[in-house]
Amino acid sequence: MKESIKELIADIEQLEKDFKLLNYKTKLLYKIEYTEKVTEGYNKWRLEANGGLRVIKEQLEKLDYKCPLCRESLQESTATIDHLQPKSKYLGLANAPQNMLIMCRTCNSAKNNREFLEWYSKIPSTWKNRLCQAIREIHGDSKLVELVTPN
Q: CB neighbours of 49 closer than 8 A, spacing ≥ 6?
C-alpha cells in the first residue's frame, strides 16, 4: 500500500509539472498569435487612406514637412511612423495615433524599439528641444509630460 501511495504522489507531482509546462506553452503560443494579428492589422492600417496615411498627412502639415529631429524634408512617401512607446512592447498602442510621431527613416531607425525616455535621454539637447516642440504640436503638453516623466 505504501508503494502505491508513493507512486500516486509521484504521478501527481509529474502531472503538476506537465500542467505547468503546458500552461506556459499555451501562453507563449497565444502571445505569438496575438502579436502576429496585431502586426498584420497594423500593417494593413498603415496603408489605409483613413489610417496611417491620414496620420502621416496630418502630422506632415503640422510639422512643415520636416523630420522633427534632424529637420530633413519629408513627403508622404518618405515619412515613417515612429511609435513613441514601441509597438513591440505596447501592442495595444500599435494603431493609436496618440502614440505616433512621424520621422525620417534614419531618425526612426536610430530610435528603434527603445523606450521613449531611454532614447530621449541620449539624444542631443537641440534634438530634445525640437522633439518636445513637435510632440506639443501634435499631441499637446500632457502627452509630453507623460513621455518625459519617469515612472
A: none
Distance CA 81, CA 134 (A): 14
Tell which residue, 110, 111, 101, 51, has the closest CA to residue 80. 101
Q: pLDDT 10s digit of each residue in the chain, 151 long?
A: 667 878 877 878 887 887 787 777 777 766 677 677 767 877 787 777 888 889 999 999 999 999 999 999 999 999 999 999 998 888 888 888 999 999 999 999 999 999 999 999 999 999 999 999 999 999 999 998 988 888 6
Q: How many CB atoms lie within 10 A of CB 99?
A: 21
Angle at 114 between CA 92 and CA 98, to 5 degrees: 40
**Whole-Å CA distances, 36 to 52, 56, 77:** 18, 24, 25
pTM of the model: 0.72
Rounded to an integer, what distance in angstroms lies between the CA atom of residue 86 and that of residue 39? 12
* Residues in Cβ contact with 98 at an 8 Å cutoff, skipping those fewer than 6 apart: 139, 143
Provide the 10 A C-beta neighbour count for residue 40.
10
